[in-house]
Amino acid sequence: MVGVGIHPVVDEGLGNSAYVVELGDGRALVVDPARDPGAYLAAAERLGLQIAFAVETHLHADFLTGSRELAAAGAQILAPRASRLRYFHRGLEDDQKVDLGGLVLCAMATPGHAPEHLSYLLLDGDRPLALFSGGALLVGGVARTDLVSDGQTEPLARAAHRSLRRLLTLPDDLAVYPTHGAGSFCSSPAGDQRTTTIGAERRHNRLAGAADEDGFAAMLQASLGSYPRYFRSLRERNRNGPELLGPRWRALPELTTDQVREQLEAEAVLVDARPVARFAAGHVPGALSIALRPQFGTWLGWLVDADRPLAFVLDDAQDRAELVRQCRTIGYDRLVGELAGGMASWRAAGLAEQAVPLVGARQAGDGPVLDVRQASEVAGGHLPGAVAVELGALAGGPPPAAVPSGPLTVMCAAGQRAMTAASVLQQHGHDQVRVLLGSAEDWARATGRPLARPEGDRPPGAAAAGPPVRAPVVEVLYTDRCPCYPEAVALVERVRDELGIEAEVGTVRIADQEAAERARFPGSPTVRVDGRDVEPGSEPVTEVTLDCRLYRHAHRFAGQPREGWVRDALLRAIDRSPTGAAGPAGG
Ligand SMILES: [Fe+2]
Question: Are the beta carbons of 274 and 356 closer than 8 angstroms?
Answer without folding.
Answer: no
